[in-house]
Automatic annotation (TrEMBL):
It comes from Jatrophihabitans cynanchi. This is Enoyl-CoA hydratase/isomerase family protein. It comes from the Bacteria. The keyword Lyase applies. SUPFAM superfamilies: ClpP/crotonase (SSF52096). PROSITE patterns: ENOYL_COA_HYDRATASE. Pfam families: ECH_1 (PF00378). PANTHER family: (7AS)-7A-METHYL-1,5-DIOXO-2,3,5,6,7,7A-HEXAHYDRO-1H-INDENE-CARBOXYL-COA HYDROLASE, ENOYL-COA HYDRATASE-RELATED. Belongs to the enoyl-CoA hydratase/isomerase family. Transmembrane segments: none annotated. Keywords: Lipid metabolism, Lyase. InterPro entries: ClpP/crotonase-like_dom_sf, Enoyl-CoA_hyd/isom_CS, Enoyl-CoA_hydra/iso.
Length: 268
């Protein structure tokens, strides 16, 4: 039987709900009345929660409550006042480049759910995934989308740049030319196109999204943990290796797995 979920405390201003049930953590953007728009409070909470997940967690599900995954940055952040406790992003210009870089660097950490080999992240995307919403989905390993999903990198249209790690992730997924066209026009990418170009792995009817995510999570958990971790590590490093180097890494990983399966771990 599934374990009862355990809530992870999150500050109310973050607009985020987090819980762990057995090997699965679910992080839900929880401002449905504002289409789950985000603020630096959201990003601080995402980073904090990711850092305190128990080692037993194998899968992280990212989702949004209501009809949108996330419509992006809270528009109040484009004013000088920002939101309570977080000045607007224009205030970054008043400090030094080092200060701005340090703060943006902290925000970027909240969008990296794919670099840990022992954890697989799944973004369940319905409705809008705009700007920071798109970049949060890009930070997951797998994106499963409802048929009403709309991705957009809207930042250049607002006079700024995508700065939450999404530019490289988008290029890695869809190639430079498509990424340039998507970012530099700010257009929406629907569910069908997202699957066709590799931005999403699967599209389903909106009413079937929860079931599709649950099916994927179950399939991920059915794979032995150590084999999954070694395989994900190989995939993460593949883009930076030559074919020969990747094959060597595969040989080394396979030898480790075979020794573990034979009960020879730790033996000389």
């Amino acid at each position: 039987m599934p374990e009862d979920p355990i809530a992870i405390p999150v500050p109310p201003e973050a607009g985020l709900a987090a819980e762990v049930s057995g090997e699965v953590a679910t992080l839900t953007l929880d401002r449905p009345e504002r289409l789950n728009c985000q603020s630096p409070h959201t990003w601080a909470a995402l980073a904090d929660v990711a850092g305190q997940l128990p080692g037993t967690v194998r899968v992280v599900v990212l989702r949004g409550r209501g009809r949108a995954f996330s419509a992006g940055l809270d528009r109040a952040m484009f004013t000088s006042e920002g939101v309570p406790g977080a000045p607007g992003i224009v205030s970054l210009a008043r400090g030094t480049a080092e200060q701005a870089g340090e703060l943006i660097g902290r925000w970027q950490r909240a969008f990296d759910f794919s670099s840990r080999p022992a954890v697989v992240s799944v973004a369940a995307v319905q409705g809008h995934a705009i700007g920071a919403g798109c970049q949060l989905a890009l930070g997951a390993d797998i994106r499963i989308v409802a048929d009403d999903a709309q991705f957009a990198m809207a930042e250049p249209s607002l006079g700024i740049v995508p700065d939450l790690g999404g530019t490289k992730r988008l290029v890695d997924l869809v190639g430079y030319s498509r990424a340039a066209e998507i970012c530099l026009t700010g257009r929406r990418v629907g569910a069908g196109e997202a699957v066709a170009i590799g931005l999403a792995s699967r599209a389903v009817l909106a009413g079937e999204l929860d079931a599709a995510v649950a099916e994927t999570v179950a399939a991920l958990l059915a794979v032995p943990r150590d084999a999954a971790t070694e395989t994900k590590a190989l995939l993460l490093a593949a883009g930076a290796r030559t074919q020969a180097a990747q094959e060597a890494a595969e040989r080394e990983a396979q030898y480790r797995r075979l020794r573990a399966l034979a009960g020879l771990d730790g033996e000389a």
